[in-house]
UniProtKB/TrEMBL annotation:
It comes from Mesorhizobium escarrei. The lineage of its organism: Bacteria, Pseudomonadati, Pseudomonadota, Alphaproteobacteria, Hyphomicrobiales. This is SGNH_hydro domain-containing protein. Residues 219-412 form the SGNH hydrolase-type esterase domain. InterPro entries: GDSL_Rv0518-like, SGNH_hydro, SGNH_hydro_sf.
Length: 429
């Protein structure tokens, strides 16, 4: 069930929280919120990481997770899109089968590494309690906390778990270092003797109180959107560049990319049709979604990621896109699509050999031709034309290539973001 159904229109995954409300009911939890007369303000998502279920050992990629958390603190750094002076976080037990107990949670301005900035540490509460008990399958949103953060500012969120807790809900490809330390260190100036992680654990959203009129763009995609190969702690994913450019226009950019994500099938995260309601439609003040997905549907079948999956047809992929269009348009949300970028020799010489072949590329080109000519999306950004090498259109330009011939480096991600103009994203809105 979509999270919007579990937490009402005003709560799910950063959903709208009316500033004049005194009580929000969601997922069986009453969330006390002080009445405010600031009718000029609204709650909006300022950062997001789409939750994924942890996979089993029969998949070729490791989860990069510890076995569990037990009397440990995990500190995670996130870079916000819009700034403000009141924040909330969302933690998720989306794929858990037992209640998730967070015994303490703090938020602070991030310093270097696991450090936080002096004087910025704040206690987070959940419905007035410093302990959060998150039911299976549910998210939980914190109470508001006063903390001044600029646009594109970094915050650290620290969660302490006392009892042995399996890790069932995470985001695999953070491209950001996180830190785990023994005991309750949520208020520590820096995590003592930390182990480093590159995944997100339980944390899925940060919300900010923003002026009325703030708008949200959600980037829905796979590893190209998630930021794979863009570099640890660099914040040079294409949604990062877009967020930096649009912050002055009061536009939040949320990254709903999942490395390995597919349009039609689930494995590294649920398929796009299944998660569209949770990761896109539930966001408050959303005006547009940018879709860049489909390359894994084409490249996975028959190789180590999905050896038994059938090869899709053009009709299969078109049907999936049309469902995303229908879901967006029923909510009056503008849907923008990017053509699939070139990937000849992608991941060659790695354990994922076979990701590219000529049959796969022929289908990519057919999908792109349909995207360009169908007229069914509200706008098309021809990323294939922007990224490809004119001398070899099956390859991306060398200056845009991260080196694996699939994911763009910083030059390529900036070129993608630069193509997402206000006119493309919002039209006449």
């Amino acid at each position: 069930m979509e999270r919007i159904d579990r937490m009402c229109e005003c709560v799910c995954r950063g959903a709208r929280i009316g500033v004049a409300l005194t009580t929000i009911i969601g997922a069986g939890v009453a969330l006390a919120t002080p009445s405010r007369a600031a009718d000029s303000m609204t709650w909006i998502g300022t950062w997001a990481a789409s939750p994924q279920p942890v996979w089993d050992g029969d998949f070729p990629l490791p989860t990069l997770l510890p076995f569990n958390l037990w009397n440990q603190t995990v500190r995670q750094v996130v870079r916000l899109s819009l700034g403000g002076n009141r924040l909330r976080i969302v933690i998720s037990n989306e794929y858990g089968t037992e209640p998730l107990i967070i015994n303490a949670a703090h938020i602070a301005l991030a310093g270097q590494g696991s450090a936080i900035r002096d004087g910025s540490d704040r206690v987070l509460t959940f419905s007035g309690s410093e302990t959060a008990v998150v039911p299976p399958g549910a998210p939980m949103i914190s109470d508001p906390v006063d903390i001044d953060v600029p646009a594109r500012g970094d915050v650290s969120v620290s969660l302490f778990v006392a009892s042995p807790t399996p890790l069932s809900t995470f985001h695999w490809d953070a491209e950001q270092a996180g830190y785990i330390g023994a005991g309750n260190q949520v208020a520590a100036a820096a995590i003592k003797d930390p182990s480093e992680i590159t995944t997100r654990i339980f944390l899925t959203d940060v919300l900010v109180e923003a002026p009325q009129g703030a708008r949200t763009v959600v980037a829905l995609g796979d590893s190209i959107t998630d930021g794979a190969a863009s570099g640890l702690n660099l914040n040079v994913r294409w949604p990062d560049f877009l967020a930096e450019r649009l912050a002055g226009d009061n536009v939040a950019v949320l990254n709903a990319g999942i490395s390995g994500a597919r349009l039609l099938r689930s494995r590294m995260g649920e398929n796009a049709l299944a998660r569209f309601g949770r990761d896109v439609l539930s966001q408050p003040n959303i005006r547009a979604v940018v879709v860049l997905i489909g390359i894994n549907d084409i490249a996975w079948p028959g190789q180590s990621f999905a050896p038994r999956d059938p090869f899709p047809t053009l009709d299969d992929i078109v049907t999936g896109f049309r469902q995303l269009i229908a879901q967006a348009h029923t909510r009056n949300i503008r849907i923008v699509v990017g053509t699939l970028t070139p990937f000849e020799n992608a991941l060659a010489g790695s354990p994922l050999e076979g990701y590219y072949n000529r049959q796969r590329d022929e289908l990519r080109q057919k999908v792109n031709a349909w995207i360009r000519t169908s007229g069914e999306f509200d706008a098309v950004v021809d990323l294939d034309a922007i990224i490809r090498d004119p001398a070899n259109p099956l390859h991306m330009k060398a200056e845009y290539d991260s080196g694996d011939h699939l994911h763009a480096g910083a030059g390529g991600t900036k070129a993608i973001a630069d193509a997402m103009t206000l006119d493309v994203l919002f039209g006449n809105q």
